[in-house]
Specification:
By secondary structure, this protein is an alpha+beta fold. The protein folds into 2 domains: about 270 residues, Thrombin, subunit H, CATH 2.40.10.120; about 90 residues, Roll (Pdz3 Domain), CATH 2.30.42. Helix content is about 15%, strand content about 30%. The chain is built from 7 helices and 24 strands. The strands form 4 sheets. Strands 2, 3, 11, 12, 13, 14, 15 and 16 form an 8-stranded antiparallel β-sheet that branches. The two termini are about 20 Å apart.
Length: about 400
Amino acid sequence: MSDPTPPTDAAIVSAPVSAPPEPPSQPTPAPPPESAVAPWPPSAPRGRNSSGRLRYTLTGALVGGLVGALAAGGLVLAFADGSDTTTVVQSASDTAIVTRPSTEISRTGDVASIIEKDEPAIVAITTGGGPGSGSGGAGTGFVITQDGYIVTNNHVAENAAKIEVAFTSGEIESAKIVGTDPSADLAVLKVDRTGLPTVELGDSDAVQVGDEVVAIGNALALEGGLSVTRGIISGTDRNVETNVGSALVGMLQTDAAINPGNSGGPLLDAQGRVVGINTAIANPASAQNVGFAIPISKAKPIIDDLRLGRAAAFLGVSTQNVTPALARELDLKVNEGAYVAKVTTGTPAKDAGIEVGDVIVEIGGKAISDSTDVQTAVREHRPGDKVTIVVDRRGDRKTSEATLTERPAA
């Protein structure tokens, strides 16, 4: 018999998940206007105390966003939809090691320079009728090609019958979904434009705790345009799990303020390069200034696959990080790697003889330190590729070969 659970190359985060309490009842929001996105006037030059910020209005977004941010314990996805939020729980991870002086935004004016450089390539996204409508929400995205490809979170675009993006120039465009990856919470959109400004993608693998960052996004879809906040990288390689069972692994943690509506927006380094995609926040009722972003270096191959319409490779295991506690509990013979918690029937992993209880320590010649490495290693290959997999099985090293297949639909 086939495994009834949909197969995924997933990371498992061992953390209890509690159901969110019901949010307090709210007044019925006013119906949205004909278009849920009100045009922004052209951008005025920004001064240090400039009040000429771009205007952008979403009916009901303020109330909906505030309710959403307070509706549940744990962490919430940073998406303003005026409804209940998704709870995610953070697991413990190893302390990050500082290996160099932190990068800094050395002068106050440098933040203005980052805004001037990047904001024209950052868009406010509205789905359906917008927040509070009961059929849509608000998020953020950023342009990666001059011909209109835009990156955002999957939970911003998922199941949206209508998507509009607003540029800081005041222009509004309809967007279509090119591709989504729910397991990575990533989506690529496309607008019919040419000559668009783009962001520069950085290297999140070079990021360390203490580096200064800037978040720009459609926070709470407030009037006045995109919001800009500043902070530092507070942690790296964080794992969070949603209450629907999906896991986000290897996340960057930041204290730069992120709010509902920021989902899909960029986390920028001191040079204005994208190092993360803002995705989840800790509920202010239980934590202060704890936000999470998908590292851009891990997202790049997924974004490329989605943009080019390439099928992702698939192995068929669910894994969790080997920690000292897990190693003691299960009497593992290794101190790092990806512990195999599940092998799905009829997948390359099953055919290769990988078993529950194995610890994956190498894929395709690359060392595996944790679950994130498994996903990254598989993503570097195409369906049909043969890869060598090394596992530790109760202290013995076993080597097998797996022929990767196409990732099945979720």
